[in-house]
Amino acid sequence: MKARDFDKAFDEGKDVTRHLDVSKARRPGHEQQRVNVDFPIWMVESLDREASRLGVPRQSLIKMLIARHLEGAHPE
């Protein structure tokens, strides 16, 4: 499909997803980098209790708490 045909179909609200190769799609600014952090046992236990209460993995809870803190520190 040529670009102008793709644009026309998109503008007309047609489903163009079958023409997209999303296997290499990335969200700019959302790339990930692994970091290692050592926490005291009491903190890991507290994180695990809260993660269990919320029904989310520990890693998700940590990301959520850090993001919330950083967003609050730099309101836009």
Describe the model.
With 76 residues, the chain is mainly alpha-helical. It has a domain at 38-76. The chain is 51% helix and 0% strand. It is built from 3 helices and no strands. The protein has helices at residues 3-11, 41-54, 58-73. α2 (41-54) packs across α3 (58-73). The mean pLDDT is 90.
Question: How many DSSP helices?
Answer: 3
Oligomer kind:
single chain
- The amount of helix comes to 40-55%
Helices and strands, in N-to-C order?
HHH
Biggest β-sheet description: none
Mean of all residue-level pLDDT scores: 90
- Radius of gyration from the alpha-carbon trace, in angstroms: 21 Å
Beta-strand residue percentage: under 5%
Distance between the termini: 41 Å
Structural class: mainly alpha
Number of strands: 0
Model regions low in confidence, pLDDT < 50 over at least 5 residues: none
Query: Which descriptor suits the 3D outline?
Result: elongated
Keywords for this entry:
3 helices, 76 residues, mainly alpha, elongated
